[in-house]
Amino acid sequence: QKNGVSNGTLYKKTFIEHFEQAPMYVAVLTFLGFGVGTIFGYLRDFMRAWGLEKRNVAAEREQQKDFVPLYQDFENFYTRNLYMRIRDNWNRPICSVPGPQFDLMERVTDDYNWTFRFTGRIIKNVINMGSYNYLGFAETDVNALKTVTIELQKYGTGICSTRQEMGTLDKHVELEKLVAKFLGVEDAMVFGMGFATNSMNIPALVGKGCLILSDELNHTSLVLGARLSGATIRIFKHNNMQSLEKLLRDAIIYGQPRSRRAWRKIIILVEGIYSMEGSIVRLPEIVSLKKKYKAYLYLDEAHSIGAVGTTGRGVVEYFGMSPDDVDVLMGTFTKSFGAAGGYIAGKKELVDFLRTHSHSAVYATSMCPPVAEQIIRAMKCLMGLDGTTQGLQRVRQLGKNTRYFRRRLHEMGFIIYGNDDSPVVPLLLYMPGKIGAFARRMLEKNIGVVVVGFPATPITESRARFCVSAAHTREMLDTVLNALDELGDFLHLKYSRYSKSSHPELYEETRFELED
Amino acid sequence: MDIKSMKNYLYWLYCQFELITCSYLMEPWEKLLFYTFNISMLVTVLYTAYIFVPVHISTAFQFFLYLFENQHENTVSIVK
Prior knowledge:
The complex is a heterodimer. Helix content of chain A is 38%, strand content 15%. Chain A is an alpha/beta fold. In chain A, the strands form four sheets. In chain A, strands 4-10-9-8-7-5-6 form a seven-stranded mixed β-sheet, sandwiched between helices. Chain A has a three-stranded mixed β-sheet with strand order 2-3-13, with helices on one face. A three-stranded antiparallel β-sheet of chain A has the order 12-15-14, covered by helices on one side. Chain B is elongated and about 60 Å long. The chains are: A alpha/beta, B mainly alpha.
């Protein structure tokens, strides 16, 4: 018997999310760093404009000097002067499968990141903390890929047609039935590209006169799809149910902007796990809001399918809800299944409508057969249909790795964003100088990380994003954690004011004997 | 031993300064320019403080005593 759980009885298990704010001096120093960078940026631009320095950037031709300037906006300024200095940490070419460890091609620069050249050496067995390989299905084991090889030899690699012409194979029908069974819905449709699934299908579902309520931090594919549809878009604060409810009430009370008519459709666009924050959507509250105000829900489970939930069936299972509550379930196969492509699942009428009206179905080539077979074998493994418990073991291993990694990082004193159960772990770095230093030093220790700064994140909150995988062993995670500990002390990254005691073993004594 | 740990600590502080002010990202000539500017500013401020602060403090102290002098004539006396 409990004394009263927060949020009443909507949540069956505790929902803990962290978004700790750093101390004030960190924000001040971050702005100072950006200020110095901007001043030197102006200095370099001045030298480039007056010919004191060689121009490596894109610039207009002599004849275009009297036209509207092309490269003077802030984004180009930022790219030229701040991004170029640390550009060697992105777009690193790898030359092996992106499993728990991978091989990297070594790259050096002679002129401060304007050009790169490959030395020819390969850095082997770099621990991979950046790939979205949540269940570890990106593998080259011959036994695992047996069926994929057979299908490759039977069908080849190209489809050379769209879904509506001659591009629907029996493999697609088999895959769609399997996806529908996996998610517990009536029907599903698969597409060749995950980004295109969002951007090409939202315009088919909504149009002018409809209202889209989208989360602040939605992915570009959702934003692009919403803008292409021509519907009115309103944005609510990230995972904030009061903001969403206020928008819904205003939409129903006031209707469309000028004519005050009722909206044709109100659709809420959310994601299962937000990849930059690591937060999980508050699904029970959104479903109860949608039922109260009669809106539709579009759930993008790109990062959460296969990664959360007791059997890997995504956020719907994580919260213990039924998939009938969500109108459109969308997801991608790139993250947890080691393949490419996306799906949309839901009621049979919805999927039949999309088969005829989606831009992707009419104009884009469909998924190629070996990739479809990879998804089929991964899904069968997850559901247990291949006779082993390997799928369930992978999901459990991912859960264990996630909890261990997050707990250790919290104990060390780093600021980590997101829900305790999400395998995406953003570690906050804040200062622009530390972004480059962090990535370079981690590579020296043979660990590959992804660092993100402006414009993908707010300007003061640059971060390093770790993606925990089921294929990581405890030793690999310990190596990474030790390296992070050392680097955290050297770069002074442990800003958290809530870290637990660093010596928990002092209080392990359970029996205290009184001395006579 | 103390000298070594002191040197390490100072090196760590220097690294923090470099990271915070983004001089870690700068090319060598930019760093030279930045450090020259900073050090010259610091030297100017310290020199100004060395010359003017004692004079300001003694003037302020005299003014303070003058204020008190007008209230209680017998209790406080000016020390020359």
